[in-house]
């Protein structure tokens, strides 16, 4: 792609993103107020408009809960296994391929357990609460081969093809010139770019990821702002998609996602205004509204309000009334305000999946209620779980494999195409979804045993295949499950032990007869 073509496509994508700016900005202002919604230093004193902390705390709980459900911290986030096409072609031989692929995945796991992956996922989950996130694996140094970066949503624009698939991601940053030169030491810059007096002058930097029309890889194109020279600072090519752009909920035909914060935004804004009005009403009831006779000796600008103060005034009564009097307004219904606020807070927590058991002074919460809360959360996440798993790990794992191969940490390249070799997300949510399917499988085996008898179960179920699917569904490591050769050896050892036990029992039973025969003789 030439620079002029890229500039036109990029300008169009950023123009299509403009209507989303205000929607996401409101979500950040009321739910994540400390976030810079419009860029570096654009938001000032946004917390002064916040009067309720329900949304600000629940969105952080949502991010931690989503990370725990998808990719728990300190655990391998995925494994490799034979894809559906490989299983169809290899049949029983796919089990051996799975063991080899798991060993390859285990060689990649240490690069996900350094802590950077966990931090990047949590930061991405905060943006997913609003709707759209981005994670970029970057090739690092020999000490840290892979670096994971969570890109702020306000810095990216996304383009899609005719089928709604991401094929263009533009990352726009404001960086100092020196930082840009440090990031791309071999880049080509304008002649005045190396001026020391302007080393810390900010510049607009575009890092664009463009999928090739023929589908053979992605181009990485780095360029300066539109006012700079029409050349690329640097460019490169990668076989795999270099950046993951997950969306929580997505409406067909739109490149950006909708998160729980956007769904709860009307209630969040209403709750914020209700808290503000309730605080004002409480302040009026506590302090009151005072009236004074103008033109008298009382001057409200000079007197001090406080205990033990003396106010000069002409009179405190008479025909005209006192110089200063309190006007009691109509009694505010603070109990109604508390009820409305409580309902709104409950709605926001439910939308953001904040299922923490609240403090309750009455009857303790039952186990069925706690289980119901957790089940409701799992069922709600299922709608977004499939999208998140398909848009994060099937993109991250192939890209990390390519980075490790280029850095020399993997001997051979591996093509993860989800057909021959697929990624399997290892998470509590995936295990829970598999648990329902495995429960049906276990029920079938139990019913076959009850109706046909234990000895007839092999007639209706392949126990080896059943146990293999249970181990796969529960994410049991392949190295702790015996393979076919090991099972044959174990079966032979068990048969040998049974023969030895039978021989020992026969000798024990024959011993009394031998002794009796000897005594008779």
From TrEMBL:
**Which keywords does this Swiss-Prot/TrEMBL entry list?**
Viral genome packaging, Viral release from host cell
Q: Kindly list the places in or outside the cell where this protein is found, as annotated in its UniProt entry.
A: Virion
| Superkingdom, natural source | Bacteria
Which InterPro entries has this protein been placed in?
Answer: Connector_podovirus
Pfam families recorded for this chain?
Head-tail_con
Protein's recorded name: Phage tail protein
Native organism is Aureimonas flava
The record lists the lineage as:
Bacteria, Pseudomonadati, Pseudomonadota, Alphaproteobacteria, Hyphomicrobiales
